[in-house]
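Reminder to self: tokens first, then the designed residues, so the page reads top to bottom the way the pipeline ran.
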């Protein structure tokens, strides 16, 4: 989610993911990611739109979420439902001062923090969906 240039989708494919879906609400980002697919000879499924574009029965073993929290808060429950028990979620694009409240929201949705990293004012976290 927040595929941007597609780099995280490409990394997932190169690291062995069988199926990758890149989602972004910005149509220009999806077009750029499509161009980068051609340049890198990679073929993730790229979707322009919101989480509502994803089939409700679809599940992802790992969700890579590179979105500022305020832009996704309304969709967090839907996003958490796409990750099965035992699945993971990497959230990035977090300002350190927003991290605690965002992780608290994710915790209420059954996601447990496994690891965090900070770099300057930014943070990223690995979450796991509780069984």
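Designed residues (131 positions):
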């Amino acid at each position: 989610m927040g595929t941007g240039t597609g780099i995280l989708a490409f990394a997932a494919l190169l690291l062995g993911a069988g199926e990758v879906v890149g989602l972004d609400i910005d149509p220009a980002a999806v077009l750029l990611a499509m161009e980068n697919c051609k340049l890198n000879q990679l073929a993730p499924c790229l979707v322009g739109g919101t989480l509502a574009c994803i089939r409700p029965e679809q599940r992802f073993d790992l969700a890579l979420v590179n979105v500022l929290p305020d832009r996704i808060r309304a969709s967090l429950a839907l996003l958490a439902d796409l990750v099965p028990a035992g699945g993971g979620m990497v959230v990035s694009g977090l300002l350190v001062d927003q991290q605690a409240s965002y992780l608290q929201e994710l915790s209420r949705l059954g996601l447990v923090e496994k690891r965090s990293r900070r770099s300057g004012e930014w943070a990223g976290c690995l979450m796991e969906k509780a069984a």
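The domain at 62-131 is CATH 3.40.50.150 (Rossmann fold).
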